[in-house]
């Protein structure tokens, strides 16, 4: 059976999965990530959870076509309901969803997170809300990554149990990403800056509050970009 190739985004997510992890991939519409990791020999087994029937079936079909049904179990379940203590899951990936939905999935399954040693989260937006949820719920960030693929920027947040406080700036931009100031990080925020400056130009002068909120966002990006020079 051919080896699965996955998007650069999922490859970068996969890089944070510890070798030998007992993995649950939540929202595993095609089960691409578990298939890739098992084929690479990085993990022995995995659970793939999916809440919607159609994607659940396509995940099952893919696992079966790759002859991995003994090693990857696909479960139709909402969020963290996809695993039980007996599954001994220690690593959870939740990728390709909004940051608010990821926070809700974590919140709804909070009691189950005690047994988890690593969360690997790839929000498509609202990264600040997700960082806030993590630090308010006994997690600390271990690492972060940012990448650009097909014109879109994606952040990856890796967390483990622990205490951490983050400033508002760190919640928005990411403590590790701020520190690293990678070229992709800079490009992402330069583009956002241009977008917001364009939006500001279209807000009528009389809408002072709206203009002021937008100006503050713009200033906070400029601060971060200038800090790197
Ligand atoms: N994780 C894959 C990735 O990163 O490429 C798939 C991302 S896809 C855009 C999001 C998937 O998450 C959809 O198939 C959706 O049905 C599923 N999903 C959304 N909410 C969920 C939940 N509460 N529990 C399980 N799956 C969920």
Quick recap of the structure?
Pfam families: TrmK. The protein is an alpha/beta fold and 229 residues long. Helices cover 43% and strands 21% of the residues.
CATH homology superfamily name of the largest domain: Vaccinia Virus protein VP39
Structural class: alpha/beta
- What's the number of helices? 9
Count of structural domains: 2
Explain what this protein looks like in three dimensions.
The protein has 229 residues and is α/β, with parallel strands linked by helices. Helix content is 43%, strand content 21%. A seven-stranded mixed beta sheet has the order 3-2-1-4-5-7-6, sandwiched between helices. The relative contact order is 0.11. The mean pLDDT is 96. The site of S-adenosylmethionine has 17 residues, from strand 2, strand 4 and helix 4. GO terms for molecular function: tRNA (adenine(22)-N1)-methyltransferase activity. This is tRNA (Adenine(22)-N(1))-methyltransferase. It comes from Streptococcus sanguinis.
Task: Please render the helix and strand layout as text.
Elements: H1 8-14, E1 23-26, H2 32-39, E2 46-50, H3 53-65, E3 72-76, E4 91-97, H4 99-108, E5 118-123, H5 127-136, E6 139-149, E7 152-161, H6 168-173, H7 175-180, H8 183-201, H9 208-227
Parallel strand pairs: 1-2, 1-4, 2-3, 4-5
Antiparallel strand pairs: 5-7, 6-7
The protein binds S-adenosylmethionine (SAM).
